[in-house]
Every structure is written in structure tokens, then in C-alpha cells.
């Protein structure tokens, strides 16, 4: 088999890139390790930057998002049993869209099917070859038989545990990492959200987040120690702890119900450089991981896809290779700024195991500066809604 761009990974990055390139007449094949059902069973991100919204619309997958998504004009930060609002519209004239990653991925698979996109699921043993030549190829096993795809370019959209980043020679790859000493326990419940916007809460007992997927599907998180097991947190215990960490007025409004999904996610900040080596380009979690505090993971994947899409389209349609040559530089410039915001917001909102009372007060003072300073709120708003591409 031969294609122009072989994409490894059928998550949001890989599907979005293949859809955008296909609509420009550029041939792609997506190789996904798992079944489509497995990919669609994951509950992950919930907030889309407007840049992501516009890219999804450009890919022709914005219709259900525009119909069912919830535009949010602000976000709420809570401390010491009170909350204050960061007004995106007033401060920076922008907004975000609340629409789950699961729905985005579902819409992308449907769009790939609708225009005959080639997505090969349950592709096992994907291996990348000759990336440092002008004739790279990929091998994999499908239904027990070895297959080969020759391509001009390979784009690794295969997430943190994928094969692509590991195909860059160790003496070329530079890695930067910070692992946080806690995780997030997340619950999805068929209950109305506690508020019509998100609430991020700093509390001496630990961080909490009140989010949503729609007006009858809520997503909540509480910070938990790294050694936490799901069985430590029956629903009743989760709801009681969440109520202790959010302001009383919200806790009194909280509608609880059975969890329909419950999971624990570890938190890390991670960046791999470069994001291009030879004919291999990396997009999304294959190249970087952010703590979900700033809702940047999926959105950084989208901006990587934006740069990769334009670089490849310029190459094939205009014969212009500047985008390819500068892909890693351009993508990383935005990655590092989002990495900073996600790290900074995580450090501000979470309780660290060895945190002193003084440090708790410093976090609260930082939040009080945010509460009272339009300038500080503007910086927060600029980063939360997404810096320009
Ligand atoms: P993905 O990991 O989504 O997709 C990679 C795909 O490649 C997967 O389908 C995988 O099966 C496939 N793959 C892997 N290895 C392969 C191989 N060798 N061959 C073929 N295919 C292979 N972000 C937020 O903004 N907010 C959140 O709340 C949030 N919560 C998260 C919770 C968890 C548990 C995790 C893991 C991530 C979370 N994220 C969140 C980040 C997440 O949304 C990612 O940023 C997003 O999925 C990135 O998309 P992709 O780059 O496509 O990677
Ligand atoms: C979510 O709704 O899953 C969500 C929202 C905002 C975040 C993280 C997760 O920062």
C-alpha cells in the first residue's frame, strides 16, 4: 500500500489531521492500535479553545458541536468558601466551548467514514522505518498478516505511550518532565451541573473541579494522593469530599447521583523536542503532556495539527517547504507557553503533600490578587481561552 501521509494513532489528533488533509486532496492512512469502540469509550477533555472550534469547523465536523456544545464566557475560581469569575468576554472578547473529547472523536470518525477516509483499527505492532530517508515506510499486523505502507511523511499522533516518539534516536531526543505528587479522581454523573460555568476550587483539603458535558451530564474531579485506588472512593465518599472543597452555596445546590464513569488520572508536565525528525512529525500527546488543570491537552493537540496540516498542504499544493522546516519550532513555541500556564495553574490550585500553612496562604494571596486585579485576570483569560496560533 502507498499513501502520501501515514498517520499513527486514531485519537483526536490523527483523525483531525487526516480529515483536514483529505479535504485538500492529500491522501492519508490512519493506523489505530485499538478498536474504534475502545477509543470512543475514553472520557477525557471537556473544554475546547475557540481555535480548536474553528479548526473542527474547517474540517467539516462542527455541526453537532455547534448544536450541542455549550459556549462559556467565563470561569470561576474558588477559595476560602467564596468564588469569583474570570470574564473572558469582558477581558479578552473571547470564549471557550464545552463539548467533550469523546463527542469530538465520535464526530471525527463519522466524518472520516462519510468521505471514505482510510482508518485501519486494531493495527498491531506498528513499526516506523527509514524515517531519515525520503522513502519512509510503516509495517504493522492486521488480522494476523504483516502489512506495509510506503509514505512520503509519517505523523505520530499516537499519544504518550505510542511508538512514534520512541522512533527518534535517543541522542537526538530532548525530554523535559515534571511529575506531580497527586492525581485527579474524576466522576461522570447524569445530573445537572452545579453551576452554569466551571468552578476550579483551591482548598486546604485539596483541589476540586466542577465541570460538565451538557445540561444533564456533569463531570467532577477531586485531587487525590498518587496511591489512591478507585475502591477507596465509593460514590457517597466522593460527593461528601467534593462538597467539603467547594463553596457552601455550591455544595448546597449540588445534585448527586450514581457515577456512570469513575477514573484516576496522574498529572505530569512533559515535552519532547524536536517535534520533527526526518520524515516523522509528532502531534499532540505523542510530543507533550500537560496537567489537565488548564484544559490544554486536547487543545495543544489541535494547534499541532493546525501547524502540521498547513505545512503538509503548502508542501503538496504550493511546493513550499517552509512550514515543514519550521514545524517543530512553531509548534513548540505555543506548546511551551501552554505548558507554562498549565504548570502555573496547577501549582496555584493544588495542595502539595509537604505544603506549609504559609504556602497555603501564598496560594490564597495569589488568588486574591487575581480576584482584585483586572491585569492579572486578563493574563489568566488570555491563556485559558487559548493563545493565538
Ligand atoms: P490520544 O492519546 O488521545 O490518542 C492516541 C491514539 O493513538 C490512541 O487512540 C491510541 O490507541 C493510539 N495508539 C497508541 N499507540 C499506538 C500504536 N503503537 N499504534 C497505533 N496506534 C497507537 N486534556 C484536557 O484538555 N482536559 C482533560 O480533562 C483531560 N483529561 C485526560 C484524562 C486522561 C486519563 C488522559 C490520558 C488524558 C487527558 N487529557 C485531557 C489529555 C487528552 O485529552 C489528550 O490531550 C488528547 O487525548 C490528545 O489527543 P491525541 O494526541 O490524539 O492522543
Ligand atoms: C473536563 O470537563 O473534563 C475538564 C474541564 C476543564 C479542565 C479539565 C477537565 O481543566
TrEMBL record:
InterPro entries: FAD-bd (IPR002938), FAD/NAD-bd_sf (IPR036188), HB_mOase (IPR012733), RIFMO-like (IPR050641). GO terms for molecular function: 4-hydroxybenzoate 3-monooxygenase activity; FAD binding. SUPFAM superfamilies: FAD-linked reductases, C-terminal domain (SSF54373), FAD/NAD(P)-binding domain (SSF51905). Residues 2-342 form the FAD-binding domain. Pfam families: FAD_binding_3. Keywords: FAD, Flavoprotein, Monooxygenase, Oxidoreductase. One of its GO terms (biological process) is benzoate catabolic process. PANTHER family: P-HYDROXYBENZOATE HYDROXYLASE (PTHR43004:SF3), TRK SYSTEM POTASSIUM UPTAKE PROTEIN (PTHR43004). This is p-hydroxybenzoate 3-monooxygenase.
Amino acid at each position: 500500500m502507498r499513501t502520501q501521509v501515514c498517520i499513527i494513532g486514531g485519537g483526536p489528533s490523527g483523525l483531525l489531521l487526516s480529515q483536514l488533509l483529505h479535504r485538500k486532496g492529500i491522501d492519508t492512512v490512519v493506523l489505530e492500535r485499538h478498536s474504534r469502540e475502545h477509543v470512543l469509550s475514553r472520557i477525557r477533555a471537556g473544554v475546547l479553545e475557540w481555535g480548536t472550534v474553528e479548526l473542527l469547523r474547517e474540517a467539516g465536523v462542527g455541526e453537532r458541536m455547534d448544536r450541542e456544545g455549550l459556549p462559556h464566557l467565563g470561569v470561576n475560581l474558588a477559595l476560602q468558601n467564596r468564588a469569583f469569575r474570570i470574564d473572558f468576554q469582558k477581558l479578552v472578547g473571547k470564549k471557550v466551548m464545552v463539548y467533550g473529547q469523546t463527542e469530538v472523536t465520535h464526530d471525527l470518525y463519522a466524518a472520516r467514514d462519510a468521505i471514505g477516509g482510510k482508518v485501519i483499527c486494531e493495527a498491531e505492532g506498528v513499526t516506523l522505518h527509514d524515517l531519515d530517508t525520503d522513502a519512509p515506510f510503516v509495517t504493522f499486523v492486521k488480522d494476523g498478516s504483516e502489512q506495509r505502507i510506503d509514505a512520503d511523511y509519517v505523523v505520530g499522533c499516537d499519544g504518550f505511550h505510542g511508538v512514534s516518539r520512541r522512533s527518534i534516536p535517543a541522542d537526538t531526543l530532548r525530554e523535559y518532565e515534571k511529575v506531580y505528587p497527586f492525581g485527579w479522581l474524576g466522576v461522570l454523573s447524569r445530573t445537572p451541573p452545579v453551576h452554569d460555568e466551571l468552578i476550579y476550587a483551591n482548598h486546604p483539603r485539596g483541589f476540586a473541579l466542577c465541570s460538565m458535558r451538557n445540561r444533564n451530564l456533569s463531570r467532577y474531579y477531586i485531587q487525590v494522593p498518587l496511591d489512591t485506588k478507585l475502591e477507596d472512593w465509593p460514590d457517597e465518599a466522593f460527593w461528601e469530599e467534593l462538597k467539603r472543597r467547594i463553596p457552601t452555596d455550591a455544595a448546597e445546590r449540588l445534585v448527586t447521583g450514581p457515577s456512570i464513569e469513575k477514573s484516576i488520572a496522574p498529572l505530569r508536565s512533559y515535552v519532547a523536542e524536536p517535534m520533527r525528525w526526518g520524515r516523522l512529525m509528532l502531534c499532540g500527546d505523542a510530543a507533550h503532556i500537560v496537567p489537565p488543570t488548564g484544559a490544554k491537552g486536547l487543545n495543544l493537540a489541535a494547534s499541532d495539527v493546525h501547524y502540521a496540516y498547513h505545512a503538509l498542504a503548502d508542501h503538496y499544493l504550493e511546493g513550499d517547504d517552509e512550514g515543514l522546516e519550521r514545524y517543530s519550532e512553531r509548534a513548540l513555541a505555543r506548546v511551551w507557553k501552554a505548558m507554562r500556564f498549565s504548570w502555573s495553574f496547577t501549582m496555584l490550585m493544588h495542595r502539595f503533600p509537604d505544603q506549609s500553612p504559609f504556602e497555603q496562604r501564598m496560594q490564597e494571596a495569589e488568588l486574591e490578587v487575581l480576584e482584585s486585579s483586572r491585569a492579572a485576570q486578563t493574563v489568566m483569560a488570555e491563556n485559558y481561552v487559548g493563545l493565538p496560533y
